[in-house]
Amino acid sequence: MLDLAIIGGGPAGLTAGLYATRGGLKEVVMFEMGMPGGQITQSSEIENYPGVFREDPPLTGMELMEPWPAQCMHFGLKHEMAEVKQVTKEGDIFKVKTASSEYEAKSVIVCTGSTPKKAGFKGEDEFFGKGVSTCATCDGFFYKDKEVAVLGGGDTALEEALYLANICSKVYVIHRRDSFRAAPPTVERATKSEKIEFILNATIKEAYGSAMGLGGLKIEQEGKEIDLKVPGIFVFVGRNVNNEVLQQSDGSYLCDLNDWGEVLVDLKMHTSTAGLFAAGDIRVDAAKQVVCAAGDGAVAGMEALNYVQEKFNG
């Protein structure tokens, strides 16, 4: 029987494994289909991870994560290259089901993350990472004193537009309606910003550019076409929370989620189910940053250690 099963091999899962095994848990397995590292390995430039910086050439996400697995597995963490289909609980014991096996575990940390939804306009995939972004905190600084666009009408879109307005010379907010889903105070702050201009009742038809990156956007607004020449577009049209492993056979979930499918946790990453923890982008109010996911993982790893010792070894 496993002391701890970790579902997901990104920064949160790796760090959880490091802290749990270094703290004394012996049978700890991290389930990750591919190589550990997470979504950040796809990033071409990393500037905001503390203590790790390289200006020319910039550090890539792959380079940032390269030494993590060896360090995190040094104290006994095992990597099982398998996709977890479902986690259930019978009494005090969790059942972790993969396509071909079933494992028993005393505790579980779910670190399966979330992925940004795509808007679906032409060129979105082609220029992703070369002008198309889903993270203003990650990439906003690259557009310092330049004009950029934000796509979306929810809280995240307008909050990120306000963030970008502190860095960029102008921020165009493109929204398909003339009203917003965002909270009224957020909308008011955005409309009062001198650097934010709204393009409403509009959709992006195409992102265009060259091998050097994004050159601009072709926008359709009430029957007319706008050619918006910006080097960056930030897309905020929602996220897909990867919570499928928590769904039970009757359609319910193993722990409490919010309306968007994010796992509800306390400050110690405890879910509503004893022995089940969540860390990283799958949890409510996650900052969607590597340093924060790693912090979540450290907390969850220590809490799982305490739970197993008190529940099973006390």
The secondary structure category is alpha/beta
Total number of beta strands:
18
Instruction: Report the uncertain regions.
Output: none
Spatial strand order of the main sheet: 3-2-1-7-18
What is the averaged pLDDT score?
A: 95
Characterize the main sheet.
Answer: 5 strands, parallel
Write down the secondary-structure element order. Answer: EHEHHEEEEEEEHEHEHEEEEEEEH
CATH C-level class of the largest domain? Alpha Beta
The number of helical elements comes to 7
- Name of the CATH homologous superfamily of the largest domain: FAD/NAD(P)-binding domain
Number of domains: 2
Query: What is the CA–CA distance across the termini?
Result: 17 Å
Work out the helicity level. 10-25%
Q: What CATH architecture label of the largest domain applies?
A: 3-Layer(bba) Sandwich
Shape type: elongated
Structural features, described:
The protein has two domains: 4-116 and 239-312, FAD/NAD(P)-binding domain (3-Layer(bba) Sandwich), CATH 3.50.50.60; 132-235, FAD/NAD(P)-binding domain. It is 22% helix and 26% strand. The protein contains seven helices and 18 strands. The chain has helices at residues 11-22, 61-65, 68-72, 136-139, 155-165, 184-192, 290-312, and strands at 4-7, 28-31, 78-80, 84-90, 93-98, 102-105, 108-110, 114-116, 132-133, 147-151, 170-174, 196-199, 202-210, 213-221, 224-228, 233-235, 239-241, 276-278. Strands 3-2-1-7-18 form a five-stranded parallel sheet, covered by helices on one side. Strands 9-16-10-11-12 form a five-stranded parallel sheet. It starts with a strand and ends with a helix.
